[in-house]
Amino acid sequence: MPQGTAMKVPMRAVAGTVGAMERTARRVVLVGAGHAHLYVAAHARELVAAGLEVTLVDPDRFWYSGLATGMLGGSYDAADDQVDAGRLIESRGGRFLRDRVVGLDRDRRAVTLESGGRLDFDAVSLNVGSEVSLAHVPGAEAYAWPVKPTSNLWRLRRTLEERFQEGATLRVVVAGGGASGCEVAANIEALARRRGARLELALISRSDRLLRRHPERASRQVTAELRRRRIMVSLGCAVDEATPGRVICSDGRRPEFDLLVVATGLQAPRVIASAGVSLGEKRGVLIGATLQSVDDPRVFAVGDCADLRGHPLERFGVFAVRQSPILLHNLGAVLNGGTLQEFRPQRRWLSILNLGAGRGLALWGRWSWRGRIALLLKDRIDRRFLARYKAT
C-alpha cells in the first residue's frame, strides 16, 4: 500500500454497547488535538469497530496553525481557524475529555489530568504541538507575548485592536527572524493598516539574515517585503532581557515597546518530559519510523512534540499530516497484532508564508516565489484541509 494511504486496522470482535466497551475494550488515549489526532478522530470508527475505545483529551478546540497568522492579520475570524475536535470524535464513536494531561506514568499505563483525575490506557499517542520557551530571556515571562499556543494569536489580535482604538502610536517588537516571526510581524502591520492605526514595528533576529533555514533568495524576498512596509529589521541582535517597556539587545540597543511578541525558542510542552522516555535533540519524544517511542511501543508521538530518529524534521504541520494515516493504522495494529507501517519523511515540501496585505511567500526546496498567487494557493490548501473536519 502506498505511504500516506489509510488502511483498515485488523478486525476483532466488536463490542455490542458503549457500556460493554467501557468494561472490556482496549483503550487508546489521544493527548492533544493536533493535526494528526484530528485525522484519527475523524476515522475513529475504524478503531472502535476493531474493539478499541478511543478518548481524545484536550482543553480547547483545534486551532489550525495554517490560518493563524492570517487570523492575526484580520483576514480570517477565530471561527474560520477552529475545529470542534470533541464533536468530531464523538460523532465517530469516540470520547472527548475537555481537560489537560499533565503527567504520564508508563508503569501504570495511565495519564494524569489537570483536573486531578487519571485515565488508563493500553496505548497512548502524544500530539501536543510545541510551545515558546521564555525562560532563556530574563523578564520575558512577565512582559512578553508568546506566539504559541496558536490560540494566543487570536488573543493578540484582540489586544492589538483594543490598543489601536486608543489612537496613540503603538510600539511593537517581535523577537525571532524565522518563519513564525516574519509572518507575525507582517500580519501585525497588515492589521494596523486595516484598522487605520499608527504603528512602530521592529523585528529583531539573532541571525545574520531572516529565514536562516531557507535559501538566501527567500531571505532577501521577505526582508525586502518587510522593509517596504516600514518594518524595522534588526539582524545579528539577540534579545538578552525584557524589562518594563524596553528590551535589552546583545549589541547594546534598547528598543522600547508597548507589546513584545516572542517567536523564538520553540520546544515540546512540559508534559513530554514527564513521559519518562528518551528525547531527541529538540527535546521531543524520540521515535522510530513506526511513530513509537524507542523505549516503549505503547507510546506514540507525532508532529512537533516528536523527534524522528535519524531524520531531524522542521516544526512544520506538513509532517504531522503525512504521519496521520500511519498513526491511525499503527494504533490499531499494536493492540490487535497487525503489521506496523513506517513513516518516511519527504525530501521536499511546499511551505507558504502568509505575509499579510494579500501577499505570500511560497517555498519549495531551493525555489521561492512571492506575491498574491502564492497566498491564494495557501488559502485554498488551508481551507480544503479544514473543510474535511468541519463537516461532521
Instruction: Give the CATH superfamily of the largest domain.
Output: FAD/NAD(P)-binding domain
Number of helices, counting only DSSP H or I runs of 4 residues or more: 11
Spatially, the strands of the biggest sheet line up as 5-2-1-9-20
Amino- and carboxy-terminal Cα gap: 27 Å
Rg (CA only): 22 Å
Remind me, CATH topology of the largest domain?
FAD/NAD(P)-binding domain
Number of domains: 2
What is the residue-mean pLDDT, rounded to a whole number? Answer: 90
What fraction, in percent, of the residue positions are helical? 25-40%
CATH class of the largest domain: Alpha Beta
Unreliably modeled segments:
1-23
Give the second-level CATH assignment, the architecture of the largest domain. 3-Layer(bba) Sandwich
Summed up:
With 392 residues, this protein is an alpha/beta fold.
Describe this structure in words.
This protein has 392 residues and is an alpha/beta fold. The protein has two domains: 182 residues, FAD/NAD(P)-binding domain (3-Layer(bba) Sandwich), CATH 3.50.50; 135 residues, 3-Layer(bba) Sandwich (FAD/NAD(P)-binding domain). It is 31% helix and 24% strand. The strands form eight sheets. A five-stranded parallel β-sheet has the order 5-2-1-9-20, with helices on both faces. Strands 11-17-12-13-14 form a five-stranded parallel β-sheet. Helix 2 crosses helix 10, helix 4 runs parallel beside helix 7 and helix 7 packs parallel to helix 8. It is globular. The N terminus is likely disordered.
Any chance you could write out the topology, listing elements then pairs?
Elements: H1 18-24, E1 26-31, H2 35-42, H3 44-49, E2 52-57, E3 62-63, H4 65-72, E4 82-83, H5 85-90, E5 95-97, E6 101-105, E7 110-113, E8 118-120, E9 123-126, E10 131-132, H6 140-143, E11 144-146, H7 151-164, E12 170-175, H8 179-195, E13 199-204, H9 216-228, E14 232-234, E15 239-243, E16 246-249, E17 259-262, E18 266-267, E19 285-287, E20 299-301, E21 306-308, H10 317-336, E22 350-354, E23 360-364, E24 367-371, H11 372-390
Helix pairs in contact: 2-10, 4-7, 7-8
